[in-house]
Design brief:
Helix content: 25-40%
Order of helices and strands: EHHEHEHEHEHEEEHHEEHEEHEH
Number of helices: 11
Bound molecules: pyridoxal-5'-phosphate
Length: 395
């Protein structure tokens, strides 16, 4: 009998997906199979409607201003690249603000533009205990030439959930666009684009939105699209008589044929979330957080990073156990218990520097999803207790 497989790496990509996701993808592949906007026949029109419906569902889930302002992307990094690079005019010297907790999908586009000599960047510090950003540091870092503030809403290392509304207010008062990386928050916690003051929101479709890999989106606040430089041009199926990129949404930012099969799956994932209710899913996530924190509270030699209570966090945990290197711990969890986790630096080098784990191999990460149960989490914390009680020397 193959060992039980408990997937706790939902921060990388979610698994399993609701059954409707696969069904929608199979239906597209077997019944439609056309490219949206590229034909007047039924299948192409229906594919177009399917894509439009996905935008509508995203607009409902995030309280956006207009479905056409959700641009489909390959993943979250793709959306963040468009948001961050699109706001910078290389012909003038600019300044950008990000934070130490950010993922490389924010840090690296900024670093690249620094190296081209286009921008200067301020990397705001975080509290090493909680992983929280200090909003006043963001306020103080704003300069007359600041073109964007970028922030990871929920950390993929510590699970820390940042005070996005407060930072949104600071950005709005200063008239600086706020770019939010919602890779670990979209589908986990409620996000209200209008109330939170978010100008640009990037999210993967394949994590908590429960779509397949190869999907994601960037939301662009109405009015900002003219300030945002498209990074790619190409065919859109619209105003084909012109060799200039359309300036209307969403075509301005969506050259090339869509990932219709992926969007079919994503749309179903979002429908499932809307049907369940995001508040209910967030409450389930918090239940798992509580179960995990209770389960590890008495384990000697275990360090858990980030917020130590249910406040300001999502169900993403970084831990270390004395005597085990993070990759060793992940390997034991997989081979002896069938528990799948991720070890290392998690594409967030400055976050690990801040919490003090950069030079020792990072951490072992557990991340939950809507189909993970409290019993699953208890099984994982019992496994950690057993492993910690048979302490091994670090290799
Ligand atoms: C916080 C954060 N931002 C961005 C990304 C990048 O997402 P994607 O792989 O969809 O580009 C990830 C992925 O792990 C993430 O955790």
């Amino acid at each position: 009998m193959s060992p039980r497989r408990l997937y706790l790496d939902n921060a990388a990509t979610s698994f399993p997906k609701p059954p409707g996701v696969t069904e929608a993808m199979v239906r597209y592949a077997t019944e439609l199979g056309a490219s949206a906007g590229r034909g007047a026949y039924r299948e192409a029109v229906e594919t177009g409607s399917l894509i439009t419906e996905c935008r509508r569902r995203l607009n409902r889930l995030f309280n956006g201003q207009n479905p056409d302002h959700f641009i489909f992307t390959l993943n979250c990094s793709d959306g963040l690249n468009l948001a961050i690079k699109g706001l910078i005019d290389p012909r003038e010297q600019s300044h950008a603000i990000c934070t130490q907790i950010d993922h490389n999908s924010i840090l690296r586009p900024l670093r690249a533009m620094e190296e081209y000599g286009w921008i200067e960047t301020t990397r705001a510090p975080i509290d090493p205990g909680t992983g929280l950003v200090y909003p006043d540091d963001i306020r103080r870092a704003i300069r007359p030439d600041t073109r964007l503030i970028a922030l990871t809403h929920a950390s993929n290392v510590t699970g820390t959930l940042q005070p996005i509304r407060e930072i949104g207010r600071i950005a709005r008062e200063a008239g600086v666009p706020l770019v939010v990386d919602a890779a670990q928050s979209a589908g986990h916690v409620p996000i209200d684009l209008q109330a939170d003051g978010i100008d640009l929101l990037a999210a993967p479709g394949h994590k908590a939105l429960l779509g397949p890999l190869g999907t994601g989106f960037l939301y662009i606040r109405a009015g900002l699209e003219t300030q945002l430089r498209p990074l790619k041009e190409g065919g859109t199926g619209s105003i084909s008589e012109q060799d200039r990129q359309p300036d209307f949404m969403p075509d301005r930012f969506e050259p090339g044929s869509h990932n219709a099969i992926g969007i079919a799956g994503l749309s179903e994932g979002v429908r499932w979330i809307l049907q369940q209710g995001i508040e209910k899913l967030a409450a389930h996530d918090l239940d798992l957080v509580r179960t995990f924190l209770d389960g590890i509270s008495d384990i000697e030699g275990l360090t858990c990073y980030g917020p130590q209570g249910v406040k300001n966090r999502v169900g993403v945990f970084s831990i270390r156990i004395d005597g085990y290197a993070p990759h060793e711990l992940s390997a034991i969890l997989a081979s002896s218990y069938g528990i799948l986790t991720r070890s290392g630096i998690h594409c967030a080098p400055l976050a690990h520097e801040a919490i003090g784990t950069a030079s020792t191999g990072g951490t072992t990460r557990f991340s939950f999803g809507p189909f993970v149960t409290k019993q699953d989490v208890k099984f994982a914390t019992d496994a950690l207790a057993q492993i910690a009680s048979t302490r091994a020397p670090v290799a």
